[in-house]
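Working notes for the structural subgroup meeting. M.R. asked for a predicted model of this chain before we commit to crystallization trials. I am recording the input and output together here so anyone reviewing the notebook later can reproduce the run.

Input as submitted:
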Amino acid sequence: MHTWHWRTWEGLPYLTCSLLEKWPHGFFT
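Returned structure, recorded in token form:
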């Protein structure tokens, strides 16, 4: 199971996963 958590990108919050951290944009919600 992967841990999902909130991050901030250019002042906007988005949800990212441990598998998506290698992507600069992460996973937008």
